[in-house]
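User: Fold this one for me? It's Probable malate:quinone oxidoreductase.
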Amino acid sequence: MNSETPVDVVLIGGGIMSATLGALIKQLQPDWTIRAYERLGEVAQESSNPWNNAGTGHAALCELNYMPAAADGSVDASKAVQINEQFQISRQLWAHLVQEGALPEPQNFINVAPHMTFVRGAANIDYLQKRFDALKDEPLFQGMEFSTDAEKIGEWTPLLTKKRNPKQKIAATRIEAGTDVDFGALTRFLFDDLVKRGGEVHLNHQVTGLKRQKDGLWRIKLNHLVGHTPSVVKARFVFVGAGGGALALLQQSGIPEIRGFGGFPISGQFLRTTNPKVVAQHQAKVYGKAAVGAPPMSVPHLDTRVVNGETSLLFGPYAGFTPKFLKTSTWLDLPFSIRWHNIGPMIAVGWQNFDLVKYLVGELMAGRTKKLKALQEFMPTAKMEDWELITAGQRVQVMKKDAKRGGVLQFGTEVITGADGTIAGLLGASPGASTAAPIMLDVLARCFPAQMKGWEPKIREMIPSYGTKLSEDPAAAAASLAATARVLNIPA
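Assistant: Here's what I get for Probable malate:quinone oxidoreductase.
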């Protein structure tokens, strides 16, 4: 079907980013027409799928990569506080949508899972103590505990200490108010509500062309993969939330803002167990320290997961390399992404990150024995017969130009917007889904500046802390945490 009447908003990709942007726009501008197009037969099948991510609800409560030690051994809490601020915005939005019935009972997508950090050895314990000291008085990190006592750590979660060498020095931090988030379920619920409010979601539709017309509208060519029927839709605004597929679509759009950007794909695997005897002994998400040369998203962690009401444990990720940008795409993604304007930065990144390449090759060649050994560093009693190996989602890290080094590999997300505000897209990975709400608010502010003033009252209704910093107001932070916890049925 070819649409003659332009659509106000087209969302490309059926993941958490598109779902969140669609939800925000329908709240702020209910009369706008919105269509989402997803290449696969269901939404949330790539990075938003619960088995393709760790569902941590990244609030920097346990992830050490947000607070690396400086050369002099000091630690800076600012990045961790910033990530937590962003997660609170997502929490507030979810709580608002639950209260008004746009989302179902919260246990369908968010559940309690204390967040812990676990380290071994004197140097790592010293670092963790410094990190704890830097965070314990921060308003958004209230309730954090620290211990070097194996008996206490075993009370928090037995699998870390059971049959561990008593001479080994260990330490851990814990915040009881951590969560496990099923971003796949959340994505589906958000799209379901979008449809109830008049939006459309078209599955099995692949975007084959994306071009801006002289009249300012975007002409989007589509192929319905069931029957291979072509169609065209015109849109006033396009958001490219296609995960690993976003780079190719933004390149296809021809906007100059995408020049110099490339993508570095990293694959991964997890070990998973549903053995009730094992699962019952661990109620937490426990993060450790990344290996030398490892990318931040490869920090080892032993996680409680709740998916479709069933609790399991997940350990990993075991990183690797494939040139695919999506689990369901082709091995030609990486070579086809190379352009004259990004080949320089990509070469520079490869030269500067040889340790990363070496690490990924080593991980790719690791057998089951090495994988089990990594798990046993967290869980000494682990037996491979209790665990199955599953493939995680692809992560495409941002590579971009840098005046000093030629190119840099960026661990995080990058919003790309056209100069006229009619197109935006998202590149990158972690913390990703956990901070979808603030990222999409940034998209709205950059692409719809004229509407933002009129939207602000509604935004503040949904997100009371909008425009402020909870970390600078202990009373406001405590009130926000308590309010969202009450609605989401999680500890404050």
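One thing worth pointing out: The chain has 14 helices and 20 strands.
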